[in-house]
């Protein structure tokens, strides 16, 4: 039998460096993926205005009259004369579940209400120019899974908040053509909590085991938590643009296009670690050479991993958010009915390989996501029931950006259908109130609750169950029009 | 709203629901359902506890190939249920021998003594058996009486077999343990190594109670202790005596007449000579020119008739306990010994190992046993799996099994 010596401190220090990197890599998936996921997939879709949400966001050709044109099509900013002030919020309730293929065990996401505010101020200068500034959160994400679940080894509490501030100007070039442009200033923060799996950590050669041996090869069971990792990142900022054009084709047909530029964001994060009892007690003959009855935790503690190696470590990465193109056509078959269909294309393939630079001398790691470009279709309609009441409905379909090997609890993303409805009420000539509901139904999809081993690429062979996900989105907006 | 508007609206709303329904149906398409065993839902999550037999030890070694030939793996395959094992990389830990007489092993002379686990760990283990485990070991790894060894940690990582089984949340378990409680006595010719019946009874009962407490357990099979007196590693004293008579042994290796047949006053038809003693020790000395003699009555390493009887009585008593525990919990009991005795009758288990020709390399202990003469070969495992399969399907089977 092989006699494998007790791991020396230097080795565990090295191994812990791997822990840190694995953890930070996981965190950076959130950084890299979720904001953009919110734009075309993800949780934070279409909550930039209640009117638009109720029509599934199909408002590129004919944006709502509540200031949300700043986001959906800047060319329509200030289409109404005078000052328009608008504020509201959406509440998102995500209902997710992971069903393990092997045992059939179901793990439900922790349910929480995610508020997503929005506010706009636009001013129409005469009938040719418009100015405005908007504040919205296109990328709000919070996912939480039970800490006792396998999902916790990817993430048990992840939070991403993105705030967009967009000053915008528009101009009507002709009676039929308008253009607009906005500067998007992005502020983003992120927090991630995750358990670390001892079994996937490497130990080097020289211990009686071949080089590259993992702790799991010495018998540490799969998903043995030994540390609770917490990461929080300060505010990352980036600047981009949002450009739109709108054409009044006929009196009853509008066409619009919007192009949202890619945005470069640089995140700086710090990770901290707290020990988690493994519950493992080593029997006689163990490869660590310690007496029977020795807890694994004692082996780890003796190596001093939580004093030095697991001290806070900085990490940095620069992410380029994908660009997005939206095209729409709106028709008004009658004076009271408006219908629109939009097409969305998002440049997701920018997220193929993500290099992560560690500031503690650990070098650079590359995370493989291999996202695909996606297309989406949005259909919406509004019917004026009376002069003061409007009914809205919408349907949207999005392709999934994540390939089959990249579906995880951090973002169990996939093809989505959204069914939206809402109502607009104008109690006075200066006040509009809007209420909306959006039901998000994601196609159930296989995914994984484990990461690939060091040096390996993600693989569908790691998928061990099925993610299901639905979302309930409630929204309300108040808009005031001042001459 | 104008009349035109009223007429237009139904057309639009007629298309809408159809579109939404199509999308909703697409969304509800399941891409994956929890696995279920083809032989019935009771086998959906099968966990095997035990010792080297269940772990897949063969030819004095174990690796991913021998593990996959375990009767438990064969059984799972027949039941159509998933079965994850703590696979050991080639050449093994330790590597199996390729020639029992020369000691050559898989991987050759440069093979490491232990190649450790495959790095791609399964999420749960269905095979939680550990070579060397006695009836105490599934309950605790930390007792002074525990048989814990390197493989205990490599397979279970500090858990007991029961803890690892709980982690797999089994619907069905098999237990084949207790052989090592008496085997070590047989292989060492020392009946003091037999686990006392009282201890065996208490431990096996505790094991049964612990298994019965598993939250989703729907069925179990308890396999009795094999009659280790008849493993070919223990060759008959009379076979040695006959070999000597036929000048098949070195001149310096004598065989006392007490190893002869009873008709000549010997006990050789009952006494058993462990391979490690007969070939590994006496033969080696004799081949070095040292005069040695095999004695079937006075040699402490040989199982004399009284010791053989003690081993047999222990096996019978143990199996009474196993049967009783199975009965108490309403589980299936399988006695492996009728199968063993049947194969003995057929002559497929040689009383003396094949020592020459290719047979000495390939099947020194016959087709049913691996090259260590204790653990079954793939053929032997298949026979055992067939026996167990038949027994459990008669009680639990509700679907399609593949014998």
In short:
The complex is a heterodimer of chains A (483) and B (403). Chain A has 483 residues and is mainly beta. Chain A contains four helices and 22 strands.
Measured distance between first and last alpha carbons of chain B: 73 Å
The strands making up the biggest β-sheet of chain A line up spatially as: 1-3-4-6-7-8-9-14-15-18-19-20-21-22
Number of domains of chain B: 2
Number of strands of chain A: 22
Shape of chain B: globular
Q: Could you tell me which chain pair has the largest interface and how many residues each side has?
A: A-B, 63 and 60 residues
Question: In words, what does this structure look like?
Answer:
The complex is a heterodimer of chains A (483) and B (403). Chain A has helices at 9-40, 50-54, 69-72, 296-302, and strands at residues 82-100, 106-108, 113-125, 129-136, 141-144, 157-172, 177-197, 225-248, 253-260, 264-275, 281-282, 294-295, 313-320, 324-331, 337-346, 353-358, 364-368, 374-384, 389-398, 416-428, 431-447, 465-482. By secondary structure, chain A is mostly beta strands. In chain A, β20 (416-428) and β21 form a beta hairpin. The longest helix of chain A has 32 residues, at 9-40. Chain A starts with 8 loop residues before the first helix and ends with a strand. Chain B has 2 domains: 20-233 and 308-402, Rossmann fold, CATH 3.40.50.1110; 234-294, no CATH class. Chain B has helices at residues 3-27, 52-55, 64-68, 71-79, 150-156, 161-168, 180-188, 197-212, 237-245, 275-287, 305-329, 337-346, 357-362, 378-396, and strands spanning 46-50, 97-99, 104-105, 172-176, 219-223, 234-236, 253-255, 272-274, 292-294, 332-334. In chain B, the strands form 4 sheets. A 4-stranded parallel sheet of chain B has the order 1-4-5-10, with helices on both faces. Chain B has a two-stranded antiparallel sheet with strand order 2-3. In chain B, a hairpin with a 4-residue loop joins β2 (97-99) and β3 (104-105). The radius of gyration of chain B is 27 Å and the shape is globular. Chain B starts with a helix and ends in a 7-residue tail after the last helix. The interface between A and B is large, with 63 and 60 residues.
């Amino acid at each position: 039998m092989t006699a494998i010596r007790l791991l020396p401190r230097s080795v565990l220090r090295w191994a812990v460096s791997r822990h840190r990197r694995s953890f930070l890599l996981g965190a950076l998936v959130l950084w890299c993926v979720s904001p953009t996921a919110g734009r075309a997939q993800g949780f934070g879709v279409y909550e930039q205005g209640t009117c638009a949400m109720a029509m599934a966001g199909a408002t590129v050709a004919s944006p709502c009259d509540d200031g949300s044109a700043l986001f959906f099509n800047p060319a329509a900013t200030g289409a109404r004369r005078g000052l328009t002030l608008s504020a509201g919020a959406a509440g998102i309730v995500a209902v997710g579940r992971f069903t393990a293929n092997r045992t059939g065990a179901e793990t439900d996401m922790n349910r929480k209400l995610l508020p997503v505010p929005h506010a706009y101020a636009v001013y129409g200068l005469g009938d040719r120019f418009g100015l405005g500034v908007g504040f919205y959160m296109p990328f709000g994400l919070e996912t939480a899974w039970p800490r006792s679940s396998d999902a916790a080894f990817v993430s048990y509490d992840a939070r991403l908040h993105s705030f967009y501030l967009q000053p915008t100007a528009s101009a009507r070039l002709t009676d039929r053509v308008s253009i607009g442009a906005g500067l998007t200033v992005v502020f983003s923060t992120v927090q991630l909590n995750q358990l670390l799996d001892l079994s996937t950590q490497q130990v080097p050669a020289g211990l009686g085991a071949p080089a590259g041996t993992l702790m799991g090869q010495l018998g540490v069971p799969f998903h043995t938590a030994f540390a609770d990792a917490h990461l929080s990142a300060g505010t990352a900022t980036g600047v981009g643009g949002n450009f739109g054009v709108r054409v009044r084709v006929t009196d009853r047909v509008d066409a619009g296009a919007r192009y949202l530029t890619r945005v470069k964001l640089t995140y700086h994060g710090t990770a901290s670690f707290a020990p988690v009892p493994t519950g493992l007690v080593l029997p006689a003959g163990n490869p660590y050479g310690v007496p029977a009855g020795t807890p694994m935790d004692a082996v780890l503690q003796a190596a001093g991993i939580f004093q030095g190696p697991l001290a806070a470590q900085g990490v940095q990465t620069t992410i380029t958010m994908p660009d997005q193109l939206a095209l729409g056509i709106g028709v008004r078959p009658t004076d009271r009915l408006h219908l629109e269909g939009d097409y969305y294309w998002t440049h997701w393939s920018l997220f193929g390989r993500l290099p992560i630079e560690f500031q503690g001398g650990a070098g650079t790691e590359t995370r493989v996501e291999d996202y695909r470009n996606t297309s989406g279709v949005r259909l919406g309609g509004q019917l004026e029931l009376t002069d003061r009441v409007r009914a809205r409905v919408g349907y949207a379909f999005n392709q999934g950006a994540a390939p089959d090997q990249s579906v995880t609890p951090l973002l169990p993303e996939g093809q989505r259908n959204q069914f939206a409805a809402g109502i607009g009420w104008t109690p006075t000539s200066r006040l509009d109130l809007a209420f909306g509901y959006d039901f998000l139904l994601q196609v159930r999809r296989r995914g994984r609750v484990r990461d690939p081993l060091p040096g390996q690429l993600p693989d569908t062979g790691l998928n061990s169950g099925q993610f299901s996900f639905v979302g309930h989105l409630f929204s309300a907006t108040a808009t005031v029009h001042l001459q | 709203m104008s009349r035109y508007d009223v007429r237009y609206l139904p057309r639009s709303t007629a298309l809408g629901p159809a579109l939404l329904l199509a999308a909703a149906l697409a969304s509800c398409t399941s891409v994956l359902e929890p696995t279920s065993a083809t032989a019935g839902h009771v086998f959906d999550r099968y966990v095997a506890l035990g010792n080297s037999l269940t772990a897949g030890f063969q030819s004095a070694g174990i690796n991913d190939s021998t593990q996959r030939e375990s009767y438990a793996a064969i059984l799972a395959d027949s039941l159509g249920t998933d079965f994850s094992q703590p696979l050991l990389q080639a050449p093994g830990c330790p590597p199996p021998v390729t020639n029992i007489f020369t000691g050559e092993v898989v991987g050759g002379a440069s093979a490491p003594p232990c190649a450790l686990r495959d790095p791609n760990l399964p999420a749960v283990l269905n095979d939680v058996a550990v070579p060397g485990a006695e009836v105490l070991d599934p309950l605790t790894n930390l007792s002074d009486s525990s048989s814990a060894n390197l493989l205990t940690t490599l397979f279970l990582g500090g858990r007991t077999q029961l803890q690892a089984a709980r982690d797999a949340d089994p619907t069905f378990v098999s237990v084949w343990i207790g052989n090592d409680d008496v085997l070590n006595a047989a292989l060492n010719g020392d009946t003091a190594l037999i686990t006392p019946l009282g201890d065996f009874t208490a431990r096996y009962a505790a094991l049964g109670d612990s298994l019965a407490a598993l939250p989703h357990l729907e069925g179990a099979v308890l396999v009795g202790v094999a009659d280790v007196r008849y493993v070919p590693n223990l060759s008959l004293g009379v076979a040695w005596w006959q070999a000597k008579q036929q000048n098949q042994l070195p001149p310096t290796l004598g065989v006392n007449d007490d190893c002869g047949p009873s008709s000549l006053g010997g006990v050789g038809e009952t006494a058993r000579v462990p391979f490690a003693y007969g070939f590994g020790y006496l033969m080696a000395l004799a081949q070095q020119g040292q005069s040695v003699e095999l004695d079937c009555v006075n040699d402490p390493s040989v199982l004399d008739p009284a010791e053989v009887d003690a081993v047999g009585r222990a096996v019978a008593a143990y199996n009474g306990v196993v049967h009783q525990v199975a009965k108490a919990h309403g589980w299936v009991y399988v006695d492996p010994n009728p199968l063993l005795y049947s194969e003995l009758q057929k002559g497929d288990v040689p009383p003396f190992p094949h020592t020459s020709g290719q047979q000495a390399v390939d099947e020194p202990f016959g087709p049913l046993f691996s090259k260590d003469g204790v653990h079954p070969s793939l053929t032997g495992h298949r026979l055992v799996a067939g026996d167990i399969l038949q027994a459990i399907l008669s009680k639990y089977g509700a679907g399609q099994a593949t014998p």
